[in-house]
Design brief:
The chain is of the alpha/beta class and 352 residues long. It contains 9 helices and 18 strands.
Length: 352
């Protein structure tokens, strides 16, 4: 005979159930590719066989591969997502996306997004996909989104250009590109993948002002607390295509941040710093590590309550693109890591 459960037992049962719910249940990973080719430069390419290996891994390990619009909407509305949610994206819109990638994605019935440059399509630039091919892919479920008109560095000013003129030019570039995509494909999602993954704070503010969402090429998982003008994506081509290392990234978690990151990623500072404020700690602070390329190391300064940490390079950064990649093992999700990446573009003299 089953005895009636007491309120205290019921209360503890509910708490136990809640503790078992996945952390970052609104979190996901976005993968970023360029070429799917066996012959083009390996730095931005993945072979068709390796690409299929990625897709097969996603299928065999029960990842929930959803479209980018479905993912973004869920994050904005703070809806629960599968604990293994992934979106697939391509930058630049190469013909091999149509010839090599699309048939494999169709085979596995995975949705995907291609970020394109309308001016390069209009000019029939070699290796760039055509509008007709994009319309074929749209009819099969692909999403087409904005990568600027011609893949210029959006944060660069022209010689003698005022800040106001630069902002007006970039606004026109983004909006014109979006209109061309809408005219040719019917898609108007207001997603912008920054060319080269580079953006500064003023560009982010412009993107927010005109109602767009910005995507970078820095790594990390995403959740609803992310800044939607600088969403990370894991590069999965070239040196990053190795499935043995990609699996760790696919299982990564987004650090729950309590404050928006208001920092300029384009800087003339040689030892720039960034402070992360955590809304919860599912990791041990002394296991939090940050890695900097070029043999550099990070200085970590924790607040007294361990709710925030300031990360700064110990040695001057080299000029150009670099990143701080910060990770920490989850205490509640054995074998999984929180991951955050801060991209930097170090310039001799700040040009923003």
């Amino acid at each position: 005979m089953m005895l009636p459960i007491s309120f205290k037992q019921f209360y503890h049962a509910i708490i136990a159930t809640l503790l078992l719910l996945p952390l970052n249940a609104t979190a996901a990973v976005i993968l970023q590719y360029h070429h799917v080719s066996d012959t083009l430069p390996k730095v931005t390419s993945i072979s068709a066989s390796d690409f299929e290996q990625h897709l097969l891994y996603l299928k065999n390990n029960q990842f929930d591969v959803i479209s980018l619009p479905e993912l973004i909407t869920a994050l904005q509305e703070k809806k629960r997502l599968s604990d293994k949610t992934v979106a697939i994206t391509f930058d630049d819109g190469f013909k091999n996306n149509y010839e090599q990638a699309a048939p494999l994605l169709e085979k596995y019935q995975f949705p995907y997004t291609i970020f394109v440059n309308p001016k390069l399509i209009d000019e029939n630039v070699q290796q760039i996909i055509s509008w007709e091919q994009l319309r074929v892919l749209v009819n099969k479920g692909a999403t087409i989104a904005n990568h600027s008109m011609s893949h210029d560095y959006l944060h660069h000013k022209h010689p003698g250009e005022s800040n106001a003129d630069w902002l007006a030019r970039i606004r026109a570039d983004i909006l014109t590109s979006e209109q061309r995509i809408a005219d040719e494909t019917g898609h108007n999602f207001k997603y912008l993948a920054y060319p080269y993954g580079e953006f500064n704070l003023e560009l982010q503010k412009l993107v927010e002002e005109i109602g767009f969402i910005g995507f970078g090429q820095h790594s990390g998982a995403i959740t609803h607390t992310n800044d939607f003008t600088r969403l990370p994506r894991y590069p999965a081509s070239g040196n990053y295509s190795d499935i043995s290392t990609l699996t760790t990234k696919l299982d990564s978690l987004a650090f729950p941040l309590s404050k928006k990151i208001m920092i300029d990623s384009v800087t003339s500072e040689l030892k720039p710093s960034i402070t992360l404020h955590f809304s919860e700690l599912d990791f041990t602070p002394n296991q939090f590590q940050c890695f900097i390329s070029g043999g550099n190391s990070a200085d970590l300064i924790w607040s007294e309550d361990n709710k925030s940490v300031t990360v700064r390079a110990l040695k001057p950064l080299r000029k150009g693109r670099t990143r701080y990649n910060c990770t920490a093992p989850s205490k509640r999700k054995n074998g999984r890591y929180y991951w955050f990446s801060q991209p930097w573009v170090v310039v001799a003299e700040q040009n923003n």
